[in-house]
Specification:
Radius of gyration: 22 Å
Shape: globular
Number of strands: 0
Structural class: mainly alpha
Distance between the termini: 74 Å
Number of helices: 12
Order of helices and strands: HHHHHHHHHHHH
Length: 275
Amino acid sequence: MSTDNHHGAQLDFSADMSYGDYLALDAVLNAQHPRSPAHDEMLFIVQHQTSELWMKLMLHELRAAVDAIAGDALAPAFKMLARVSRIMEQLVHAWDVLATMTPPEYSAIRPYLGRSSGFQSWQYRCIEFMLGNKQAAMRKPHAHRPELLAQVEAAWRAPSLYDEALRLLARRGLAVPASHTERDWTQPYAASDAVEQAWLSVYRAPQRHWDLYQLGEELTDLEEAFRLWRFRHLSTVQRIIGDKHGTGGTSGVGYLRNMLDVVLFPEIWKLRTDL
């Protein structure tokens, strides 16, 4: 009697698509090319490549959520925004793995990184721009790649997630000023007392504005997750390189610490004091 027991699973894939074929694993698993002889460079590469894959999904969800809000389709937007927050949680925990790298281990690979640095990630820049942190100068690292610059420029010129949320509030009859519904989208967002009053109207009568109230909380969840991602990044970098300058020329920990002060949806946080 045969001892093989594969429960009916297909074992011959000479004529059919396999798991590895569907996921293009040959390309994915052969995309790691360490430049140093150090054992730990593989960790560094995989950490950043997987983060870029999660950011690809994040952009996919953010773009769809912005379109949904612009089209007054809040139910699917809520699901997409919740997914973005969960992706950020994955990225927070990814730093736990990189934090196992010690300063001597990183020092062994740092010379091989050249001037490359995470702040040059075009996907991360698109995420920052879509969340409203518009900094014109941050387009420059992509000027040598016109096809990537075009995507970064598109995110820079388009209304952010929060811009579309405010336009939705205005369409619902809330008193959002025109200065915040029709403006130069390339400029950084400036907080407004009038916008806070509009959000306060929502939060003071949640039953009347339930979907807008839920939108406010989805935005709160998203920004909180983003703050945790940024903080974990700062903590990991400080643990590994201390106060050294970053490979891309930034001040390293100082640059990351300044990023912690960026508030994406200021009125949603301020109303908690004034409510």
